[in-house]
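Q: Structure tokens for this one, please.
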Amino acid sequence: MITKIMALAATTVLVASAFVQPADAQRRRGNRYSVMGEDATQIFFQFQLFDTDESGNIIHDTTPDYPAVGLFRGAIVDYVSGMGKLRDVEQMLEPSDFDADGNPILEEAFQQEIKQFDMGDLLAELITDPKVNKTFVRYSIFEEGSTSTKPFSNFILDPEEPSGIFTTLPDPINLYLAVNDLSYILDNNLLDAARKPGEEINGKNILLDDQDDKEMGLGMNSFLVKTEVINPQAVPESDNNSAIFFAFTSFGAYILLKRQIKMNRTAKM
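A: Here is the predicted structure, written as tokens:
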């Protein structure tokens, strides 16, 4: 009986310890992006882009042997369609056009209508268009695990003529990191400078046929804009402290029990 109690106490300590993790390990950070039509104000889709998974681990490129391709599985979360409206963005917004968290203020709040998928993958590729002798970065969004099918959406980043309105981009843009390093993409907000280009850069030859054209008929000259920064969230301190307290209490009980057994055996000798 005593042996069973000791085993149970030891097991309790191990189980409780498994739940005790540093708060920093439970973090996720990213941006929410809005997909807009040609007028660069009407919002039709939104999604979240993260460079870490739910446990706080960096999402790495799963194609390291191909420097012209970067595949980041699980980086896209909650791709939804709906309707909303941004303020006029024909020119750089003024500080008064942003809220206290640095997010652009929406004229009409986005109303979700359909969730297209929960999790998705981001595919980044270097694309060279010989007709204009230029290299572009193509960002394509797929439902998780379906990169062999038609993407849900894809956008072009022109390093020489980026379309970003809210972001000061690195000059020059590091094309290798723009494809192979998700943290670089997120930190420099490169998607904010991507769009579905018009004929002026021969867009039809470098864009893939995708599903959002079918859903909303966005076509050429649609834009991406960051509309929310998603800050890392740590595990609530009270939950962590409770787990720590439980683990140490169980361990203390185990030590006391073991000492009592030893004393009893010594007294009998």
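A few notes: Residues 2-20+236-268 form one domain. The helical segments are 2-18, 175-180, 182-187, 203-206, 211-216, 237-268.
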